[in-house]
Specification:
Length: 93
């Protein structure tokens, strides 16, 4: 508990997680506040960094297999295959 007390002497806000939500939060805290961002790994290993540029959709039904493979790879094959298929199927709606 001493470490928490010591840290709180230096920072007004502590944000655990540096994904999109954590960074968005940090950007909306007044500039006069001292913020500590805690991350689990390097920036290059974050889910936000690996997201490859945002929202996409299936433009051609013939690209389904490629889109599926890319999405699974980006998720390090930890994605739920059925959820990925559903997302791709509904991406044009």
């Amino acid at each position: 508990m001493n470490n928490v007390k010591e840290i709180s002497q230096y920072y007004d806000v502590i944000i655990v997680g540096t994904g999109v939500s954590g960074l968005f939060c940090a950007l909306h805290i007044p500039e006069d506040k001292k913020i500590l961002l805690i991350t689990k790994d390097s920036m290059e290993n974050s889910d936000s960094y690996l997201a490859q540029g945002g929202v996409s959709c299936l433009l051609d039904k013939n690209d389904f297999r490629s889109y599926y493979k890319d999405t699974m790879k980006a998720g390090r094959y930890k994605n739920n295959p059925a959820a990925v298929m559903t997302m791709i199927d509904h991406s044009q709606h």
